């Protein structure tokens, strides 16, 4: 009995140290996990900013080309947190903002489904076309780019809708792609849009910058 008590006394400090070691190990693991999450978040936001600057640059170049003709130029600035928060109220609010649209395109590119917004934009441009000749040529281009089987940016629509479009573009009208555009809009609104609102990048845009105190002269 005496020997057992001595052995137990010798083992207890070691056991406490082992348990303490495990706690310290858990703390280290949590710290490493926290740092890793922070690193991933910074990488995601950096990638987003790279993609976003690409889309904004292209939009700016396009605006400048039009500006040379019409005498107008546009520059896109980071939205205020209040403006960014408006995008969460309705999908149309997001699409109506040049910066928001570019941010959403960058997000879709990260999800490998940017063909949806590109098709929607092509349809918006198509509906504004007045010349019958241009209408026909644009209709065929949209069909070749987005609709036909194994098109480079093929969108996910049903076979019946594809067939209807193939028939309608022979004598193109402004409503050629209406059904397909509604389908793609609904797909983005119900799937990609909610994920965009939950993204790290959008959450960053909605954050108010910290208040900096200005030192007063005495």
TrEMBL record:
Statement: the UniProt record of this protein carries the keyword Cell cycle: yes
The organism's place on the tree of life at top rank: Eukaryota
Any one GO cellular component localisation term in the record: plasma membrane
Record's subcellular location: Cell membrane; Cytoplasm; Nucleus, Nucleolus
Gene3D superfamilies: 1.10.196.10, Regulator of G-protein Signalling 4, domain 2
Coiled coil (residue ranges): none
SUPFAM superfamilies given in the database record: Regulator of G-protein signaling, RGS (SSF48097)
Residue segments, region Disordered: 16-38
Entry GO MF terms: GTPase activator activity
Domain named RGS: residues: 90-206
InterPro entries according to UniProt: RGS (IPR016137), RGS2_RGS (IPR034947), RGS_sf (IPR036305), RGS_subdom1/3 (IPR024066), RGS_subdomain_2 (IPR044926)
Summary of subunit composition and partner proteins: Interacts with GNAQ. Does not interact with GNAI1 and GNAI3. Interacts with EIF2B5. Interacts with PRKG1 (isoform alpha).
Its job: Regulates G protein-coupled receptor signaling cascades. Inhibits signal transduction by increasing the GTPase activity of G protein alpha subunits, thereby driving them into their inactive GDP-bound form. It is involved in the negative regulation of the angiotensin-activated signaling pathway. Plays a role in the regulation of blood pressure in response to signaling via G protein-coupled receptors and GNAQ. Plays a role in regulating the constriction and relaxation of vascular smooth muscle. Binds EIF2B5 and blocks its activity, thereby inhibiting the translation of mRNA into protein.
Protein name: Regulator of G-protein signaling 2
Organism: Crypturellus undulatus
């Amino acid at each position: 009995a005496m020997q057992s008590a001595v052995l137990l006394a010798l083992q207890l400090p070691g056991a406490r140290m082992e348990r303490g070691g495990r706690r310290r190990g858990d703390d280290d693991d949590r710290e490493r996990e926290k740092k890793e999450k922070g690193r991933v978040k910074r990488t995601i936001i950096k990638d987003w900013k790279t993609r976003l600057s690409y889309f904004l640059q292209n939009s700016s170049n396009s605006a400048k080309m039009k500006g040379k003709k019409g005498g107008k130029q546009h520059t896109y600035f980071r939205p205020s947190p209040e403006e960014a928060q408006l995008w969460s109220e309705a999908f149309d609010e997001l699409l109506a903002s040049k910066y928001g649209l570019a941010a959403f395109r960058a997000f879709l590119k990260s999800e490998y489904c940017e063909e949806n917004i590109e098709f929607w934009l092509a349809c918006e441009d198509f509906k504004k076309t007045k010349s019958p000749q241009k209408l026909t040529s644009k209709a065929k281009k949209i069909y070749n780019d987005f609709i036909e089987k194994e098109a480079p940016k093929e969108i996910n629509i049903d076979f019946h809708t594809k067939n209807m479009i193939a028939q309608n573009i022979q004598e193109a009208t402004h409503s050629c792609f209406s059904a397909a555009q509604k389908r793609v809009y609904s797909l983005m609104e119900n799937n990609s849009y909610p994920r965009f609102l939950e993204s790290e990048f959008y959450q960053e845009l909605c954050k108010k910058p910290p208040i900096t105190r200005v030192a007063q002269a005495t």
